[in-house]
Amino acid sequence: MPLAFVRCPVCKQKLALQDYMQHVGTDLVCANPKCDTNLRVAKSRPLTIEIIPIESTYNADDRPESYG
């Protein structure tokens, strides 16, 4: 599996994304427990990520535990 590396725009933590996570629109969270920033893949070539507000992640598919 090819890996791609990006840095969190907030804490500068290096994040490794496997190929299935490199699609535009994929949501992820920074791996740094002190940061926990919600991120989204904005472009695949070159791989860039953007910060998204937590309010945009509130739906039944991405956060099912909040609808239990």
Tell me what the structure shows.
The chain has 68 residues and is mostly beta strands. It has a single domain, classed as Rubrerythrin, domain 2 (Single Sheet). It contains no helices and five strands.
Summary tags:
mainly beta, three-stranded antiparallel beta sheet, Rubrerythrin, domain 2, two-stranded antiparallel sheet, globular, single chain, 68 residues, 5 strands
The percentage of residues in β strands lies in 35-45%
The class by helix and strand makeup works out as mainly beta
What is the average per-residue confidence, as pLDDT, rounded to a whole number? 87
User: How many DSSP helices?
Assistant: 0
Might you state the CATH topology name? Answer: Rubrerythrin, domain 2
Number of domains: 1
**Main beta-sheet strand count, sense and barrel state:** 3 strands, antiparallel
Shape, principal axes of CA atoms: globular
The low-confidence parts are: none
CATH architecture: Single Sheet
Condensed summary:
By secondary structure, this protein is an all-beta fold. It has strands spanning 3-7, 14-18, 27-29, 38-44, 47-51.
